Amino acid sequence: xxxxxxxxxxxxxxxxxxxxxxxxxxxxxxxxxxxxxxxxxxxxxxxxxxxxxxxxxxxxxxxxxxxxxxxxxxxxxxxxxxxxxxxxxxxxxxxxxxxxxxxxxxxxxxxxxxxxxxxxxxxxxxxx
Length: 128
Known about the structure:
single chain, mainly alpha
């Protein structure tokens, strides 16, 4: 019988793991704080000023946004809009549309994301 071999993979001590976790949390918190303080987050509905509403409507239909939202929340899907406290600025609305774009791998260009967000603002959020 062969003797048991010791692993050559170095183990990380619990204190190093805690420090790495704390550093990661601090970096994440710092990034979130920077984003919340950024002009893009705080922008008003002026970010939709030159948006192509017809393009936004077309993209919502083509990408079956309503069907996806209906699968997620039931009913007609509209309860996904205005979740309590989450989307309270035009910048956050645009960011949420960008998140859908990324998660669903839709490949929308920035002006298309803005167009979709402008339609949602017009129909559901009404940011001024």
